[in-house]
Model the fold of this input.
Amino acid sequence: MRGSQVKRQIALIAHDNKKPALLDWVKKHRARLADQSLCATGTTGALIARETGLRVRRFKSGPLGGDLQIGGRISEGKIDLLVFFWDPLSPHPHDPDVRALLRVATVYDILIATGPATADAVLAGMKP
Ligand code: PGA
Done:
């Protein structure tokens, strides 16, 4: 982190069909994201860390409770931005967890980005 920049807590999650899009987004904003504190569900985090070299705190895989772990962090006030590229065109066994995560993120009124367009806009709107 440089100077007086505010370090943001950013959670990254992508369903399998959306992982390439999230990886592209992270690569596009790599320099900015390198100054933030990143966490992710297990598979998403492993992919991002491997492909970008960024430090990412990894929780469990989404279907194994990772979404709920991140939801818990949100309820503790420890996440500023949820970047969640969820897939509305595929069924997911952990759909209740997905709904719980989106619900708690809305309850706590944190920033939520569900695709590249919103994620670009949210990041652009964040103070450096
Ligand atoms: P994953 O979980 O990063 O472990 O694939 C994402 C999800 O399905 O919620």
In short: The beta strands are 9-14, 37-40, 56-58, 81-85, 111-113. Residues 13, 15, 41-44, 61-63, 66-67 surround 2-phosphoglycolic acid (CB under 6 Å). Residues 12-125 form a domain with the Rossmann fold fold (CATH 3.40.50.1380). The mean pLDDT is 95.
